[in-house]
Specification:
Blueprint: E1 4-14, E2 21-22, H1 39-52, E3 54-55, E4 61-68, E5 71-79, E6 94-95
Antiparallel strand pairs: 1-2, 1-4, 3-6, 4-5
Length: about 100
């Protein structure tokens, strides 16, 4: 059976004019770290992330890799277009918007 998971070593973010940093507080993504999923489950997780848009305050981008067994399945990059309006400091991952199904 194929196993899908988020590679926790790949999760990183970037502040303006700085190099990438590794995430230490997974925040809303913590429930997925260290767990294996079926393809259907992982596709739902990815869809939820796309709808809700994970970010870190004041960072420009959030990167993460989704793996299938030992190879790449998806390499995701979430851009934070409001980074210049946010306070730098809280490095926990949070969602920008609510899921469409909750509206």
């Amino acid at each position: 059976m194929e196993e899908y998971y988020i590679n926790e070593k790949s999760i990183r973010y970037c502040y303006p004019y700085e190099t990438d940093k590794k995430v230490t507080d997974y925040g809303v993504l913590a429930e997925y770290i260290g767990k294996k999923f079926s393809r259907k489950e992982m596709d739902k997780i990815i869809a939820e992330m796309i709808l809700r848009h994970p970010y870190i305050d004041s960072s420009m981008r959030l990167y993460l890799d989704v793996m299938r067994n030992q190879s790449y399945y998806h390499m995701l990059v979430f851009h934070n277009y409001n980074y210049n309006k946010q306070e730098k400091g809280n490095e926990s991952i949070k969602y920008e918007t609510e899921c469409i199904e909750n509206n």
